[in-house]
Amino acid sequence: MRKILIASDHAGFKLKEFIKKYLSKKKIKIIDLGPSKFAKVDYPDYAHKLSKKINLNKKLTGVLVCGSGLGMEMTANRYKNVRAALCYNQKLAKLSRLHNNANIITLGSRLTKKSVALKCINTFLNTKFEGGRHTKRIKKI
Ligand code: RB5
């Protein structure tokens, strides 16, 4: 069974819960790294928590949600084996997998409709890395 790690800050909390509910209907094991309830928190704490795990296990996929998606993306990309992509449409979600082999999707709850967020997640989870010429390029990141 596929394993997905998910985390947010307070701004992304509601969307995180919504995504969890949606993914739980699929054959996906979701590991929620918090927060477990709505409270003001700092996004880097949750981005670090999740990214550390992805950095050590290449088979894992992550979902990080904050207000804009930017803070989560910036923090996650400090890790060597992480390629986090802020996606606000399906095309980006697709390209981030096809060309960049992204292993974390970040979403901005304040700027992205729930329906669009789900489309991005679906595309992200169902698109395979193209490999080929892109392999040498991502090695250069
Ligand atoms: C929190 O107000 C907000 O700054 C955070 O969710 C995120 O957008 C940061 O990049």
Describe this structure in words.
- By secondary structure, the protein is of the alpha/beta class.
- It has a single domain (3-139), classed as Sugar-phosphate isomerase, RpiB/LacA/LacB (Ribose 5-phosphate Isomerase B, Chain: A).
- Helices cover 44% and strands 18% of the residues.
- The protein has helices spanning 13-24, 43-56, 70-76, 90-98, 114-126, 133-139; strands at 2-8, 28-32, 61-66, 84-86, 104-108.
- It has a five-stranded parallel beta sheet with strand order 2-1-3-5-4, with helices on both faces.
- Strand 1 (2-8), helix 1 (13-24) and strand 2 form a beta-alpha-beta unit.
- Helix 2 (43-56) crosses helix 3 and helix 4 (90-98) packs parallel to helix 5 (114-126).
- The longest helix is centred in the middle third of the chain and has 14 residues, at 43-56.
- The model has no long low-confidence stretch (mean pLDDT 97).
- D-ribose binds next to helix 3.
